């Protein structure tokens, strides 16, 4: 598991380490590790020239010492001091060390164009403008230098790409776009969250001897090695019931294929037994595709509700299916709720619950539930719950009560994409559920747990039906007794890794991902069993 720690946790751990060490030792370890990575990349790319962009804090200090190492190794090195106060604004020891090593020192404020020319010549750029002490965004003079970086240069962000929010909460377009980030001691949340992940590039962690093993993580990412620890493996005493029965309420006359995708992936994930509740067309298809599935209601350990469910259908069989979906949601069993099932969510469930919206579904759910809870808070229980529909524009929604508490902003899919974590947290607060927000980086948010962030899938997975497959895997894991947080994040990992294998760099089909789950789990388990230690 990759664990990222908050800035506060990092600062506390660094302070504890520094109290035991000679002054400057941590920075010197950070700078040496940084210089080693930079030298390796220069060797790989046959580069010879290095420029460090140096800000006012310790991030600039790391960079100055690292550039000094690189100059001593024989590379042609320069630094550009970014603070308006020039030399007097930067780390004194670092600057002295760089000058002694023969590094050319330029002050951005003395001649912006000349400094930009120096930057443009570099084969490798070290971004030491700001680190964990930085506020989001770049000042104009720093932004001009960053713009001058040659497209072919290898850009290494020191600790984090300057301009990003270290906590990864706020998105920021005005930031360094790094090929690689060399961070110290531990990843920071921004490295794993959608707000910063793309600008972070490849992540390299340098060990500086700061112990964070026992410190609580802010963000976690499951890796292949976690599968063997978390995946439910049957023992000799198990039978199909003890392994867990999953009930699937999915598919409809309008979207019958979703039932096949969801049940196939649950079967491929190795569920003990499957029960399927649906209307005639998907029942026929499920019979053929997943002959193991038993059709009809019955005792289960968990439910998967919603893929391809048509909540508008009004014939007798569909009404019976929707009744089964509502009964599952009203039960005290674990449920994973996706797609059409999300429209049936009315608020809190006390039993374990995973909601798996994409950005648009999350926006709609927030609009519906927040409108409702505003009405309830005002004692206006009878107020109609308005569904926000598919609107993507920003428009005010009149409050449900007397209308005198002002307009609330209707959440759009773009709002969710701009702040995925913040909006996922809003849904967690409203429902108490685990919220899995789908996307290139999938977030799993549960109250009181570190956020899990999975980015295992290729963009080819953005294809119709892929979400139905994910529901089946998560449902199988819930039925086996995993917590919602583990079931959702492990499900996302295996789904993403499977998609990567199935794609092999080209297009994939959702059904092929479903069929790939079984060999992927088998291989990940075998890999974990053969790993040393
Ligand atoms: N602690 C340790 O043991 C170790 C720490 N290490 C290193 O220290 C780094 C943290 O250093 P730090 O605390 O000095 O903060 P840092 O990130 O350099 O930035 C603060 C300065 O930036 C400025 N500034 C802020 N926002 C800005 C903006 N948007 N645009 C422009 N300027 C902006 C702000 O100035 P202000 O504007 O507030 O006057 C302030 O002067 C950490 O990331 C790691 O690299 C390693 O050596 C390992 C050991
Ligand atoms: N750019 C992307 N890169 C990788 N995975 C993605 C990307 N966009 C979406 N996905 C994944 O593809 C799946 C799409 O699911 P969903 O939107 O529910 O589709 P459907 O409703 O058609 O089944 C999710 O698992 C999501 O995380
Ligand atoms: K930086």
Automatic annotation (TrEMBL):
<keyword id="KW-0630">Potassium</keyword>
<feature type="domain" description="YjeF N-terminal">
    <location>
        <begin position="10"/>
        <end position="216"/>
    </location>
</feature>
<dbReference type="GO" id="GO:0052856">
    <property type="term" value="F:NAD(P)HX epimerase activity"/>
</dbReference>
<dbReference type="GO" id="GO:0046872">
    <property type="term" value="F:metal ion binding"/>
</dbReference>
<comment type="function">
    <text>Bifunctional enzyme that catalyzes the epimerization of the S- and R-forms of NAD(P)HX and the dehydration of the S-form of NAD(P)HX at the expense of ADP, which is converted to AMP. This allows the repair of both epimers of NAD(P)HX, a damaged form of NAD(P)H that is a result of enzymatic or heat-dependent hydration.</text>
</comment>
<comment type="subunit">
    <text>Homotetramer.</text>
</comment>
<feature type="binding site">
    <location>
        <position position="258"/>
    </location>
    <ligand>
        <name>(6S)-NADPHX</name>
    </ligand>
</feature>
<comment type="similarity">
    <text>In the C-terminal section; belongs to the NnrD/CARKD family.</text>
</comment>
<keyword id="KW-0511">Multifunctional enzyme</keyword>
<dbReference type="GO" id="GO:0110051">
    <property type="term" value="P:metabolite repair"/>
</dbReference>
<dbReference type="InterPro" id="IPR017953">
    <property type="entry name" value="Carbohydrate_kinase_pred_CS"/>
</dbReference>
<feature type="domain" description="YjeF C-terminal">
    <location>
        <begin position="223"/>
        <end position="524"/>
    </location>
</feature>
<dbReference type="GO" id="GO:0052855">
    <property type="term" value="F:ADP-dependent NAD(P)H-hydrate dehydratase activity"/>
</dbReference>
<feature type="binding site">
    <location>
        <position position="308"/>
    </location>
    <ligand>
        <name>(6S)-NADPHX</name>
    </ligand>
</feature>
<protein>
    <recommendedName>
        <fullName>ADP-dependent (S)-NAD(P)H-hydrate dehydratase</fullName>
        <ecNumber>4.2.1.136</ecNumber>
    </recommendedName>
</protein>
<feature type="compositionally biased region" description="Basic and acidic residues">
    <location>
        <begin position="406"/>
        <end position="418"/>
    </location>
</feature>
<feature type="binding site">
    <location>
        <position position="467"/>
    </location>
    <ligand>
        <name>AMP</name>
    </ligand>
</feature>
<dbReference type="GO" id="GO:0046496">
    <property type="term" value="P:nicotinamide nucleotide metabolic process"/>
</dbReference>
<dbReference type="Pfam" id="PF03853">
    <property type="entry name" value="YjeF_N"/>
</dbReference>
<dbReference type="Pfam" id="PF01256">
    <property type="entry name" value="Carb_kinase"/>
</dbReference>
<feature type="region of interest" description="Disordered">
    <location>
        <begin position="372"/>
        <end position="418"/>
    </location>
</feature>
<dbReference type="InterPro" id="IPR004443">
    <property type="entry name" value="YjeF_N_dom"/>
</dbReference>
<dbReference type="InterPro" id="IPR030677">
    <property type="entry name" value="Nnr"/>
</dbReference>
<keyword id="KW-0479">Metal-binding</keyword>
<dbReference type="InterPro" id="IPR000631">
    <property type="entry name" value="CARKD"/>
</dbReference>
<keyword id="KW-0413">Isomerase</keyword>
<keyword id="KW-0067">ATP-binding</keyword>
<feature type="binding site">
    <location>
        <position position="358"/>
    </location>
    <ligand>
        <name>(6S)-NADPHX</name>
    </ligand>
</feature>
<keyword id="KW-0547">Nucleotide-binding</keyword>
<keyword id="KW-0520">NAD</keyword>
<feature type="binding site">
    <location>
        <position position="468"/>
    </location>
    <ligand>
        <name>(6S)-NADPHX</name>
    </ligand>
</feature>
<comment type="similarity">
    <text>Belongs to the NnrD/CARKD family.</text>
</comment>
<feature type="binding site">
    <location>
        <begin position="438"/>
        <end position="442"/>
    </location>
    <ligand>
        <name>AMP</name>
    </ligand>
</feature>
<keyword id="KW-0521">NADP</keyword>
<dbReference type="InterPro" id="IPR036652">
    <property type="entry name" value="YjeF_N_dom_sf"/>
</dbReference>
<dbReference type="InterPro" id="IPR029056">
    <property type="entry name" value="Ribokinase-like"/>
</dbReference>
<dbReference type="GO" id="GO:0005524">
    <property type="term" value="F:ATP binding"/>
</dbReference>
<comment type="function">
    <text>Catalyzes the dehydration of the S-form of NAD(P)HX at the expense of ADP, which is converted to AMP. Together with NAD(P)HX epimerase, which catalyzes the epimerization of the S- and R-forms, the enzyme allows the repair of both epimers of NAD(P)HX, a damaged form of NAD(P)H that is a result of enzymatic or heat-dependent hydration.</text>
</comment>
<keyword id="KW-0456">Lyase</keyword>
